[in-house]
């Protein structure tokens, strides 16, 4: 219950960022047209696809946790035999690729003189995507914690399965927020 209340407060935080984005965009439409032309939409589609698919791998990890299966029972290449750890490690890798893609995009935009101090567009772009990136990093740390706890414990317990489920709530939330940000920033130009 606490996680749902906390995620609700996070939703309000991101709603404020969306409101600021649309307000400033409405005031400076010419600036938006100029700055959004610098975005690499195909690259963003690729990283977004990876992040959205990571929600699927995360959910497969939850299904394994609910079955009481922390680790794989077959060879690594036997995906059907994977446990929660393998699915969560794959989710972690996909989330890390998303963060690396975001860092790459930031570096490219900085070379094109889009910075947090360059314009209202730059400020809102970096605030919205940056805070989202911090949330993704928080989710990645949570995955490491859940995976680590399964190695430290002698037996996989119901509480560990609940931890996996709670982390999945957070991860799905982060993905849904990104879909909204992606549509707002990259598609509604």
From TrEMBL:
<feature type="transmembrane region" description="Helical">
    <location>
        <begin position="124"/>
        <end position="148"/>
    </location>
</feature>
<dbReference type="Pfam" id="PF00510">
    <property type="entry name" value="COX3"/>
</dbReference>
<protein>
    <recommendedName>
        <fullName>cytochrome-c oxidase</fullName>
        <ecNumber>7.1.1.9</ecNumber>
    </recommendedName>
</protein>
<keyword id="KW-0472">Membrane</keyword>
<keyword id="KW-1003">Cell membrane</keyword>
<feature type="domain" description="Heme-copper oxidase subunit III family profile">
    <location>
        <begin position="1"/>
        <end position="189"/>
    </location>
</feature>
<feature type="transmembrane region" description="Helical">
    <location>
        <begin position="86"/>
        <end position="104"/>
    </location>
</feature>
<dbReference type="InterPro" id="IPR013833">
    <property type="entry name" value="Cyt_c_oxidase_su3_a-hlx"/>
</dbReference>
<dbReference type="InterPro" id="IPR035973">
    <property type="entry name" value="Cyt_c_oxidase_su3-like_sf"/>
</dbReference>
<feature type="transmembrane region" description="Helical">
    <location>
        <begin position="43"/>
        <end position="65"/>
    </location>
</feature>
<dbReference type="InterPro" id="IPR024791">
    <property type="entry name" value="Cyt_c/ubiquinol_Oxase_su3"/>
</dbReference>
<dbReference type="InterPro" id="IPR000298">
    <property type="entry name" value="Cyt_c_oxidase-like_su3"/>
</dbReference>
<comment type="similarity">
    <text>Belongs to the cytochrome c oxidase subunit 3 family.</text>
</comment>
<keyword id="KW-1133">Transmembrane helix</keyword>
<feature type="transmembrane region" description="Helical">
    <location>
        <begin position="169"/>
        <end position="188"/>
    </location>
</feature>
<keyword id="KW-0812">Transmembrane</keyword>
